[in-house]
Amino acid sequence: MQLHISPSMRSITISRSASIGNNINSVTNGSIDLMKIKVAARHISYRTIFHTFLLLAFLFPFLFILTALVTLEGVDKCSSLDCLGRRIGPGFLRRSDDSGRLFGDFYKILNQVSTEKLPDGLLLPDSFDQLVSGLKSKQYDVKTFAFMLRGTMEKFEREIKESKFSELLNKHFAASAIPKGIHCLSLRLTDEYSSNAHARKQLPSPELLPLLSDNSYHHFVLSTDNILAASVVVTSTVQSSLIPEKIVFHIITDKKTYAGMHSWFALNPIPAIIEVKGLHQFDWLTRENVPVLEAVENHKGIRDYYHGNHIVGSNLSETTPHKFASKLQARSPRYISLLNHIRIYLPEMFPNLNKAVFLDDDIVVQRDLSPLWDIDLKAKNLDPNECAWAYGMNIFDLRAWRKKNIRDIYHFWLKEVIILSQT
Q1: Do residues 31 and 16 make contact, with C-beta atoms less than 8 angstroms apart?
Q2: Where are the membrane-spanning stretches (predicted)?
Q3: Cα torsion at 350, 354, 355, 360 (round to 10°)?
Q4: Which of 197, 265, 346, 368 is the most exposed place for a label (fewest CB within 10 A)?
Q5: pLDDT tens per residue, range 305-327
Q6: What's the pTM value of the predicted model, to 2 decimals?
Q7: Which domain holds residue 373?
Q8: Residues 6+ apart with CB under 8 A from 34
C-alpha cells in the first residue's frame, strides 16, 4: 500500500500493487488506486478579514493602556497579582474598589484633628504648590497631612477676614478724609482771604449786626469745617424758604477753616444774613471749660480709640464686617471734635436768642422750614429714657436749656464717663 501526496498539496492517493485477473477499476503503473482524495483550495472572505481587523483595533488600545499604566506605576509599586489584574481587568479577579474605605478613614482622621490642638512648630504652606511639594519631599503621614490641611484652611480664612476688614477700614478713611479738591479749595480761599479785601469784608454788614440777636428772625446754626457742605446747606435752606429775608445763618467753624469759610460767603453772597465765626473767637471755649478737650489731651486711651489702629486689639473672629463698619463709624475722630459738641454750648454762644434750629452739614433742605418756629416746645422735651437723639435737624429752646443748666449736667456725666473709662 502506498500513500501519494501531490506536489500541489491538493490530492492524496492511497494504492496497492495490481494482481492479474482481478477486476480493477483503475490501474496506474501497475498499481491499483484504493482511494483518491482531492482537497479544494479554501479562500478567506473579505468580510472575515474586516471583522478580524476590527477586533484587533479594539483590543490593541486596551492592551496599550494597560501596559502603559504598569510601566508608569513601576514594577516596585505593583504586585504581580495586581498588575495581572490591571492587564486582565478588575472584574476578572474580583478586585474591590478601595476609594470608599479610604474616604471613610480620612474622614475619621479629619474629625479627630478638628478637636485637637495644632502641633507646635508645624510649618504651614503659603500656597497649594508648597503643600504638594512638601508632601512629595517629606512624606507626611495622613494625620500630619490632616493637621496641615486644617491649619492652612484656618490661616487662609484669617487672612481673608483681615483683608475684608482692611478694605472696610480703607473705605472708612477714604470716606472720612478730605478730598484733594476740597482741601485745595480751602487753601485757595485762605489765600484769597489774605490777599483780597472783598474776601475779608465783614459778615454781616454793620447795619445788619443787630439782627443777629433779633428773635423775630429765623436763626439757623451750622457747625462744620467743610466749606462746600456748608454752602449746600445754606443755599438749599434759603432757596426752599418762602421768606428768605427772615433767615439768619450762624456758621461756626474751626480756626484752620475760618479764613476759607469767610472768603466763600463773602465772595458768594446769598439773599440771607450770614455770620461766620471761628471757635477761637469764643474766649471761654478753653480746656478748663470744655471737658472733652481735656479728655482728648490727657487720656491716651481716648486718643487711641478714635485715632489709633482700629484693627489691632480687635477680636475679628467674634465680629462681622457689618458690625465692624458700624464701630468704625462710631469711632470717627469727628465725634471728639469740639465742632461736634458745640450744640451743648449754644445757650452760652447765643445768649440773646430764645430758639434756634441746629442743622448738620450732610443735609439738603427741600422745603420751607419756617413752620418750625410755630412749634410749641413746652411739651416737646427729650425722652429721659433715651441716651441720644438724631442730629440731622434739631430745634432748641435755648431759654429752657439755660433754666435746666444743660451744660453743667453734660459736663458732670462726661467726667463720670472719663473716670469710668480710666478704671
Answers
A1: yes
A2: 52-72
A3: 10
A4: 197
A5: 555 555 555 555 556 666 666 66
A6: 0.58
A7: 180-290+341-421
A8: 1, 14, 15, 16
